[in-house]
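Following up on my earlier thread - several people asked me to post the actual chain instead of describing it. Fair enough. Here it is, all 324 residues.
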Amino acid sequence: FVKELTELHGGTIVAKSDGIHGSEFIVTLPSLAAKDTLVPISANTLYTANSQNSTTLNSYFMNEKNDLLSQDNEQDQFIILVVEDESDMLQYIYEILSPTFKVVTATNGKEGIDKALETIPDLIVSDVMMPEVNGIELCKKLKSDKDTSHIPIILLTALSDMEHHVQGIREGADVYLPKPFNSQLLLVHIHNLINSRNTLKEFYAKKIFLGTSNFEIKTFEEEFLVKLMKLVEENISNSNFNNDDLANLMYMSRSTFYRKLKAVTGMSGNEFIRTARLNFSAKLLESGKYTVSEAALEAGFNDIKYFRKRFHDQFGVNPSDYKK
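Reply from S.P.:
Thanks for posting it. Predicted structure:
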């Protein structure tokens, strides 16, 4: 693979080994001054080059590449949706949050609902008194929607009467903050809610390791996870089953599915599938009826080397020792 990439960049690679002291690899690439002599590399060029030698990009490398992409996605910045019809207040909240978070804005409740369904933010800060759809109606709508039910919501209002406060909490608001508010207080509430969601992610992740029987479906999140786990179990032996297939079976767009699953479990779709495959393979090994290779294939792993590595990562021992 390195050789192919080097040659595509107009360079050369030479390997030397004396069999005693190890190996030496020399990669020579043309200088930037010679860039006009190079052939531009497109995705199709790479695909064609790799297709010419299928052994170069083996399944182990592709699996490792997908895992690295999943890890990169974990670095995504938290997204906060701010819904506020007063431009000055919207700008004020934006300036408070933008140094730390990625901020998406909406100027009324209807637009806020649309953007929440589109972006699946990590948290929502919304005014109560707004045209078209007020903050309490927004809260009720999003908390009753399976795609957005997990999102913490902070309601802001100049209304100080207890009736609106109680109504907001009843519709699922996590925090009810009266205006004018202290910027540090808002940030503390946001960080506390995000930390609470992270704790819940760990809780659900542990349940996923233990299987569907450990879920008592009391929330939309648990219903969502049980359905996911059953879909993966039904396709466990299909090595080609991936994140996109899972999103389609859940009738969700790829981006919505990613944001929802990430918010609930901290995992990407491919990580979720891999975890389920490894758990399934462990059960097969426990039965004593399967060899390591058979358990790997039954769980949808075509590459035994990759399977052993990931099994060890998850369970702390290699598959053969686990079986013993």
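The first strand starts at residue 12 and ends at 17. That should answer part of your original question.
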